[in-house]
Design goal:
The chain has a single domain (about 1-215), classed as Phosphate transport system protein phou homolog 2, domain 2 (Methane Monooxygenase Hydroxylase, Chain G, domain 1). Helix content is about 85%, strand content about 0%. The protein contains six helices and no strands. It is globular. The model is unreliable at about 1-10 (pLDDT under 50).
Length: about 220
């Protein structure tokens, strides 16, 4: 009876840990969705409010990450290796950090109007974050590894697409813009957007390792 109670407690912790990761994925999708809305319906008069919403989501992601680290440090048996869980949480948190960083730069740099490349990169980031969320929702069904690989391959495709858009954007930026200060500002936004998608690929790499280890 004692063993059964102890085992039930472990399984309950599994659900809490996996559930925390799902919540992180949900927060990420909300933040990247808000970033797309910010860029596609750009309004300098409403920029502070929109950026602050993304900032609040980034803080929520930090809270969930800290909560998860505290949980796994106090849990004797975890559903996955501690390194895999902490790696996933940290990588998702980094995507959120970069997403918030992009929104911040639109505000701090007083960008008059985002380019079509910025909108394209924002949309790709949102699509990649959706795949991350879908992966996290099936993390408790680790034997279904082929679905893991489908989402990971999709994220990799988005990462390659973002690289291509980034290269074209930078080439055009240097070719058409003769204001060095403006070039620096816009280049930094492009870099943060591209890096955001790169961080999504980091999440996919960890998921692939998990699938190979447990699938």
């Amino acid at each position: 009876m004692v063993f059964k109670t102890w085992f039930s407690w472990i399984r309950g912790n599994d659900k809490i840990i996996i559930g925390n990761l799902e919540k992180q994925g949900e927060v990420l999708v909300r933040a990247t969705s808000d970033l797309v809305a910010l860029v596609s319906n750009y309004d300098k008069n409403n920029l502070t409010q929109r950026a602050s919403i993304i900032k609040e989501l980034e803080h929520e992601g930090d809270r969930l990450t800290h909560e998860l680290f505290t949980m796994i440090s106090a849990t004797f048996v975890t559903p996955l290796d501690r390194e895999d869980i902490s790696g996933l949480a940290s990588s998702i948190d980094e995507v959120l950090d970069f997403t918030d960083g992009v929104a911040d730069r639109f505000l701090l740099f007083k960008i008059n109007k985002p380019s079509p490349y910025m909108l394209d990169l924002s949309k790709i980031l949102f699509l990649a974050s959706q795949d991350i969320y879908h992966v996290l929702c099936i993390l408790g069904k680790i034997k279904n590894s082929h679905k893991f690989m489908e989402y990971c391959n999709s994220i990799r495709k988005y990462e390659h697409e973002a690289d291509s858009i980034y290269r074209n954007a930078i080439a055009e930026l240097f070719e058409l813009n003769d204001n060095p200060i403006e070039v620096i500002k816009l280049k930094e936004i492009y870099e943060n957007l591209e890096e955001s998608v790169d961080k999504c690929q980091d999440v996919a790499d960890i998921v692939e390792d998990i699938a190979l280890k447990y699938g």
